[in-house]
Amino acid sequence: MPPRTQSRRQLEPWQDPKAKPYITLENVTKSFGSTVAVRNVSLSIYQGELFCLLGGSGCGKTTLLRLLAGFEKPTTGRLFIDGIDVTDVPAYERPVNMMFQSYALFPHMTVAQNIAFGLKQERLPTKIIRERVMEGLDLVQMSAFAMRKPHQLSGGQCQRVALVRSLVKQPKLLLLDEPLAALDKRLREQTQFELVNIQERVGITFIMVTHDQEEAMTMSSRIGVMEEGRIRQVGAPHDVYEFPNSRFVAEFIGASNIFEGVVIEDEPDHVLIDSEAAGCQLYVTDSAAVPVGAQVAVAIRPEKVMISTKQPSEKRNCTKGVVRDIAYLGDISIYYVELPSGKVIQATLPNLLRLSERDVQWEDEIYLYWRAENGVVLTS
Distance (Å, rounded) from C-alpha 20 to C-alpha 334? Predict the structure, then answer.
């Protein structure tokens, strides 16, 4: 599905110096004995965001979520929700709800009873409970399933019930731990769209944990990429993808061709890098200043790499190689091309023609080239 569209306005909250964060983490660290799960994390999240913590297994993203929920207490640091310090506030007193990966529905209760359970625990009047349950069921189009038990529902329907059960308590913050991991690919894509629409309608701040890059790119307003307990980069999906701030982020988010080289020219409008691995000089615009002689890497996304059977006129950002493999994925094909240096790089092209009708086939010698603005200089 297409990436989440950004609303049209002059400044997003995180770009506005006058905007106040809704969720704030200040130098939060969490250790379990000698193991440090979260390392000195400082983060600001704004009201109405769907913020995604993205990372591999063991990176600390679920621990960070549990700290926000109150299930764990930070070893050092402070947490604030809507301006209130909740560091020492127990989970049951926080204006937070959490939706677990397993959904944790009570099997002996109906859909309506599952949704009403938390409201009954708060001893709300019966009339208010009934109204919120019906409003929640209408929100996710599940009114017709109110009297069914969880085992009579599909995975996607159980996911909706778990979501409504969290929303009817009207929390200030909803935490979602891998909420779509149990769904198949098609249902997961449909539910991503539904979840984003519901979040925008109710206006509650969502923080979601996932290891699925596509899910994070599709759903979130911003992404925090985590590694070894640290947040390596925070930004809107297109910023994190197009302008990774480190080699780790460039390689973790999508696929990247990485070329090492030495800076031989640093000018205000470009950087020129000599790369033996690439077999050419890399001319990169839109780069931070780097000193001449510095060892750097340049990342180029496969879809930015163009293929030609004829040699382009430009010598920079142009190399040649032999097609060693072609991965056909239906809508696109990935060409694996071996350069004279032995490095294999990827070029991704849309399948506008049938495979048998293409000019480029296995073992063909081809030229690869890209625009100066498509390279990203990585210094870390």
Answer: 44
